[in-house]
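Sample entry (178 residues):
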Amino acid sequence: MNLPPRPRSYRMPLPAGFASETVAALAAALTETTERHFDLVRRLPPALLGSRLGEAPSTPIEITAHLGWGDGQWFGFLRGQPIPLAPILESEKGVSGSIEEVIAACQAVRDEGMAFLRGVVDPRQALPWRQDGKASVLGVMAHLIWHWTYHCGQCGEIALAQGHSHPWTFDRDLGHFE
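Predicted structure, serialized as tokens:
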């Protein structure tokens, strides 16, 4: 597709309505990472959305569904209650639907996760179901940011291997540092 890439955000203003500034900053970072992934896959031609790189197990559309599924799992763990998933996210293989349907399902999961995060006061507090202190909101958010970053790079590599490049917009976006 010949869509212009959206401008990158390097300022990442804190979203309103969060009890913790730290959680708000993590939410902003996760949102930016997610939107960068969506920008990448929205620009891919439909045939490339279903392409694998060599023997890779997943295609970009399957990877995107996996990311939404992962958000559902982790946000469900955080709030102690599962987040219902749209059927398009329940099967990571053989996704039937458009990338816009997968993105909408991912965004619905994210909305529920963010609603929970708004009330978190202490991001370092151990999760109730992990009293051993090994899991916290801070740790899960760091994992989710990494998860989206890793798989966005994976989709970018698939695109590059198929001859599709994503425009480099850093020079244009330097104004965001002001």
